[in-house]
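Purpose: get a first structural picture of the assembly so the mutagenesis plan has something to point at.
Setup: two entries, given in the order below. No constraints added.
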Amino acid sequence: MRGIVLISLIFGTAVSGIPPDEHAVDLPTEIRRWYFNPDGSCVQCSIGMCGADQDVPAAATLLWDTEYGPAERGGSYPERVARYCRSRGIRAYNITGERTFDWMRWAASTGRGAAIGAGKAHFQTLIGYDSKTGTWYVCNNNSPDRIDTYDEEAFRKLHLASGRWVVILDYPPHPARPVYHKWWAPSGH
Amino acid sequence: MYDKKRMWITIAAVVVLFITAIAIARSDEVDRDAVLRCGDMVQHISGYGQSATDRFVEAMAPPKDDSGKWFITVVGSSRSRTCERLKTDWTRDANLLAIANPGDPSRSWAHWHYYYYGDKSQSWRLEKVKITHVPTVIVQPPRDGSYGDPSTVVCQLVGYNGDADAMAAKIRGSIRAYVAKLKASQPPATDTGRLTPPWTPAPKVDPPLDETDDSMPVHKIFPDIDIPSDIDVEVGFPWREIMTFFTVGFTIPAVIALVIWIVVIVRNWRKETGRKLYLSDETFGSVIKMLEEFANARSSSRCSGCPVTPDSKRSSRRS
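Result (structure tokens, whole complex):
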């Protein structure tokens, strides 16, 4: 088991128990690629990805100069996040300390992503969490094509390696991709 | 001097009491939004079972948590006056606010989203639905699966002529019909594949933006049928098939109809009592459908002049 975790930590893995479009963050690969980390802006990349997922343009455009505000590039810390969120009018939970795991579970269970500390002095995007198998799904902005999976222990180490800090956007989660079902038909869906 | 001071204290106390009394009187002891969401509704609380109305009232109640909220998605354009009007009305009209409060998501009954038509960061979400005009309003069930597959389009409304009440009424009516039907069939939360939309698809060009037409009333394009809100959810007893036992004798279609009826009754009972189900809803539906087709084939081959009536089909299928 540890071997598998090690392999997944080293290489990451695209093997996923939950279909990609059912994750809390269900952005297609081409959208995730927008948030490839260009210059050590991992926090903004991670928040930006959540912004795209929840359709919050002010957050989704953090990396660029737009009508929502100037580009926010480079390393970050809670006070800086609070500052640019305030100036752009972004509602967010900026959480540090003991309860970050609870918040991450809450975010995933309600269909929200989270920008999370993951890896040494690094931020990534929490894509989802499968409570049945204890599997965490994370997208690293250094390799946005991929969704990495972690079991509870590996994820704990990953998060603690960076320090307990999580940013969750305070906006509704995205709806599931709508599909026409003949729900009124005699046999149901 | 002392009396004057006492007089002022008394006046201040009276004013404070008066303000407190007004505040108490005005505090919300009734959730008026929940009342508005129910629309025109008569619920008979009898203590027996749960009617379609009961289920509707339950669905319109404030959700237990965030994951139990329904989804209202508005697809609009900043170039359309109608869209801007709808957007504005949704922040003002009491009936629409009761359904979704764009300005205060934490107090909103449903999650509300406004997607700009053509926004590449979001347009991929709507690939499986046809957006022919803006504004388009799509209603979907909650994410937690409590009302079936969250991807299901409960209704899709197109157009807006400023009649917010009509918009709200159509949303309520669709949810009511959907909830009634959903609980009756307990559908699986799986995608059964892409279905052809129940209307003539628009030509494969960029949809025209409704920039000037403010007279287009709220138009429901999905579903394109009028569904009674109180859908019969009971399993009908196959009287017709029983009668054939006495008139024609044992026939395979009649036996199959009876078997289906018994199996559905047993399955529903097992579901209600929380017992293990040996087949998933999808598999069970397929088996029943196969049996029905087999029965129909036997019936038509036996008596080519006596087609299976919708009544007989419905009586064995309603579940």
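The beta strands of chain B are 70-76, 110-116, 136-140, 155-158, 219-222.
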